[in-house]
């Protein structure tokens, strides 16, 4: 399988909510580096941590809809561009997002993902508003 195809399958699984498909394309020791401004920012090690610490936080705050993705093979790895919309569970606010990711692929799995967001501060503020809108008991 080509490196492009590995990332395409990862993105397809993400866009349909297929967690098993996502896990199948991530190396067990995957390293994911997210912008520090985000609630899940920093460097994460392992696919279970990816699912809990990144996807879990994102989906805990909002409905995640991936509207489009492109994949390009470059000299340093596979470059992916994701676009989508987040809809806050608590407020209904919608936020368009664009992410660029650099993937290091080994065989049929992704070993490393470096994530670059067009608007990390705006996304962090969205999460803060979403959390503030939660009903507290």
Fraction of helical residues: 25-40%
The number of helices is 4
- Radius of gyration over alpha carbons? 15 Å
What is the number of E strands?
Answer: 6
User: How many angstroms does the end-to-end distance come to?
Assistant: 50 Å
CATH secondary-structure class: Alpha Beta
What is the CATH fold-level name? Answer: Nuclear Transport Factor 2, Chain: A
User: SS-based structural class?
Assistant: alpha+beta
- Biggest sheet, open or closed, and with what strands and sense? 6 strands, mixed
In terms of DSSP E residues, the strand content is: 35-45%
**Low-confidence segments:** none
Lateral strand order in the biggest sheet:
2-1-6-5-4-3
Order of secondary-structure elements = HHEEHEEEEH
Whole-number tally of structural domains: 1
The CATH architecture term is Roll
Overall body shape: globular
**Rounded average pLDDT:** 91
Domain SnoaL-like: 7-111
Protein name: SnoaL-like domain-containing protein
InterPro entries: NTF2-like_dom_sf (IPR032710), SnoaL-like (IPR037401)
């Amino acid at each position: 399988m080509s490196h492009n195809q590995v990332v395409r399958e990862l993105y397809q699984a993400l866009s349909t909510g297929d967690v098993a498909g996502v896990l199948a394309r991530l190396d067990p020791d995957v390293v994911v580096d997210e912008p520090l401004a985000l609630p899940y920012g920093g460097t994460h090690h392992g696919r279970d941590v990816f699912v809990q610490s990144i996807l879990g936080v994102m989906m805990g705050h909002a409905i995640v809809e991936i509207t489009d993705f492109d994949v390009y093979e470059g000299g340093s790895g596979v470059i992916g561009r994701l676009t989508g919309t987040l809809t806050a569970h608590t407020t209904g606010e919608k936020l368009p997002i664009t992410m660029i990711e650099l993937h290091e692929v080994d065989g049929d799995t992704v070993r490393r993902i470096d994530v670059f967001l067009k608007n990390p501060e705006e996304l962090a503020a969205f999460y803060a508003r979403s959390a503030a809108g939660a009903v507290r008991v």
